[in-house]
Every structure is written in structure tokens, then in C-alpha cells.
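Q: How do we represent a protein-ligand complex in a form that can be generated cell by cell?
A: Start from the inputs.
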Amino acid sequence: MAQYKCFSCGKVITNKILEKRFVCPHCNSKIFYKPRKHIAKVKAI
Ligand SMILES: [Zn+2]
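Then emit the C-alpha cells for the protein with zinc ion bound:
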């Protein structure tokens, strides 16, 4: 399941919620971004 984050309030919203209405249920924002699941940490040597 895809997860998005509201750009405005930062809450996680699943695509199931966005299927019904493409707005944030918390703040009615329409801007979302996809948070990365794996944050690659690069060690500088
Ligand atoms: Zn929001």
C-alpha cells in the first residue's frame, strides 16, 4: 500500500483515503509527497 505525506501538516495518508477524495482529511491540503521508505545512509570515508 502506498503511503503519502501531507505537505502541509505532515500527516501520513494512505492512497486508500486519497482514492475517495484527493485532499488531506486533516487540513484539506491537496499537496502530498511520497516519503522514502529506505533512507540510504552513505558513510563518507
Ligand atoms: Zn494535511
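The chain has one domain: 1-45. The first helix runs from residue 15 to 20.
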